[in-house]
Amino acid sequence: MKVLICGGRLQGVELCYLAAKAGWRSIVIDRDRQAPAFGLCDEFIAGDFRDARLLRQAMAKADFVVPALEHQATLAALACRAEETGVPFAHDAAAYRISSCKKTSDALFAKLGVAAPRPWPDCSFPITVKPSAASGSKGVRLLKNAGDFDRWRAATPDYQDYVCQEYLAGPSYSLEITGRGGRFQTYAVTKLEMDAAYDCKRVSAPVVLPDEAARKFRRMATTIAQAINLTGIMDVEVIQHAGELKALEIDARFPSQTPSVVYHATGVNLMTELWRCFAPAPSETPGGATNALSQSALYEHIQISGAALAVQGEHVMATARPLTWRRDFFGADEALSDYQPGRADWVATLIFLGENPAAAWAKRQDAIARICRDARIRRYTDASPAPPAFSGADAAAHVAIDETVGGMA
């Protein structure tokens, strides 16, 4: 199987990694010859997505095309080229249009009776604000009172294009679902941990969720997938607040980070599950995968800058030099990194496996300590979003700092 991956950044990295795990050959097309996925694919094509001739030639090599980008016009152009060449294109344009607009997806949640944060002004402060059309954590702000809100609105000309809703404290979780022809399959629930800018820095499985909460989460995802008539894959992100799971957002595209954790925790490869949704053979439909948890998986991103090591959100991987896949990387079971011996600045996605979460975490602690010794790290940070009581300079107090890094192991 040959898969053409259109885009070489975060989603492209995820797709290349899982294609290799499936035993598939991956071809990446991106105009940036230094894209992070350059070092992970079997073939790299440097080119512009506006070049129809180049796209047709690239697609002619592939059995399957997967977009790894979010620009609507480019997605439409890719769909046209795929139709011309007759190769399956793993994208549900109608579902994506709904999920890519937070205002539209929030309206869908309300229509379906899906629990979600209350919109402002029907809630009290603190509130979060985020661009309706942005992906992930881009532009997310926490406003603790009316003064913060007025200052933010005055400084934000396009504030009407933002979603404003109540701030909810609690753990965040993600769940993938695939669908074809009205038949759906959900997969393992993963836990998400954020950095100070609300960008996901760490993903793990299994999660500690009561069975009934997990069943409600799966029903929520299925209800949404049915409502948008999903073909392909979608992830649903929720926050658990006061014992209730509330929907934060949906994305009807191949996600980054969580599929790798699902793969290592259960053995289910969401890349091959995606193929089942678009394969020409009618027998290839979702629903055959097992979700039995076989081991614990922990996945996180680190950035080394001179004598400092910081656990960071995945944005640090998007601008990395070409990544390579490594085993037993300072004690991590696997890593994707631009590390080179002697280099003072590098990043890595670290993957730790264990028979239980405690074992995976212990392995993680040992690996971080080894990296700190090798790189002569003097400052370690692992920041999380500051709670509403903090703002501005006070938020710095919420950053976890261990100056004596040798004591972390």
Question: How would you portray this structure in words?
Answer:
This protein has four domains: 2-91, Rossmann fold (3-Layer(aba) Sandwich); 97-101 and 169-278, D-amino Acid Aminotransferase, Chain A, domain 1 (2-Layer Sandwich); 118-166, Dna Ligase, domain 1, CATH 3.30.1490; 296-407, no CATH class. The chain is of the alpha+beta class and 409 residues long. The chain starts with a strand and ends in an 8-residue tail after the last strand. The protein has helices spanning 10-21, 52-60, 72-85, 93-99, 102-112, 146-155, 211-227, 258-266, 270-278, 315-318, 357-375, and strands at 2-6, 25-30, 43-46, 64-67, 127-131, 141-143, 162-166, 172-180, 183-186, 190-194, 200-205, 232-241, 244-251, 296-305, 308-312, 324-329, 332-337, 345-354, 379-382, 400-401. Strands 8, 9, 10, 11, 12, 13, 14, 15, 16, 17, 18, 19 and 20 form a 13-stranded mixed beta sheet that branches. Strands 3-2-1-4 form a four-stranded parallel beta sheet, with helices on both faces. It has a three-stranded antiparallel beta sheet with strand order 6-5-7, covered by helices on one side.
